[in-house]
């Protein structure tokens, strides 16, 4: 029985593993966790976990730079377009919402469906092993298992995302437009 549950526990531990550091991946495959500071010209300033100061790294050596909030600064060796504050303020509410949405990595949500299925099938398996019988014979399990299989992956994937309106959006109608976009 332990051999059957161990892979499930390992998977859950893998899914819950989180870091509170920015992630820098070089083109040679080396990965560093640490703190991103800024980009000046074609140089990125990044402080790895064990370093005492920020290190200058040429953009051409970087494959990907992802902030702990999920925002991608460099992807495929190219700096993503970033607007100055004045340019950002001139955007409409809808344009701000689209611009802000493009700053974050939403590819992780492709894992939502498979993860939900895995959680559901795992709960069916555990029910059969621990309790015995078919899962549809238990009304509590029949309702709780699908609910858990949808909510657990949602909270795991959504754990780092914090939704804040830009300070320039003040009215409820602007907030509604921003959310819809």
From TrEMBL:
Regions crossing the membrane: 109-127, 139-157
Keywords: Membrane, Transmembrane, Transmembrane helix
Protein name: Uncharacterized protein
Organism: marine metagenome
């Amino acid at each position: 029985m332990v051999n059957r549950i161990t892979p499930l526990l390992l998977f859950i531990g893998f899914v819950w593993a989180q870091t509170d550091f920015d992630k820098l991946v070089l083109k040679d495959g080396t990965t560093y966790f640490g703190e991103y500071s800024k980009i000046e010209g074609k140089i990125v300033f990044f402080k790895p976990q064990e370093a005492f100061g920020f290190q200058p790294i040429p953009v051409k050596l970087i494959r990907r730079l992802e902030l702990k909030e999920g925002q991608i600064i460099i992807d495929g060796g190219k700096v993503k377009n970033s607007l100055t504050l004045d340019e950002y303020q001139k955007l409409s509410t809808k344009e701000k919402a689209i611009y802000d949405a493009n700053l974050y990595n939403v590819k992780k949500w492709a894992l939502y469906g498979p993860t939900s299925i895995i959680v559901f099938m795992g709960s069916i398996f555990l029910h059969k092993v621990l309790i015995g019988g078919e899962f549809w014979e238990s009304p509590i399990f029949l309702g709780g298992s699908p609910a858990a299989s949808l909510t657990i992956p949602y909270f795991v994937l959504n754990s780092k995302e914090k939704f804040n309106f830009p300070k320039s959006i003040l009215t409820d109608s602007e907030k509604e437009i921003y959310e819809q976009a």
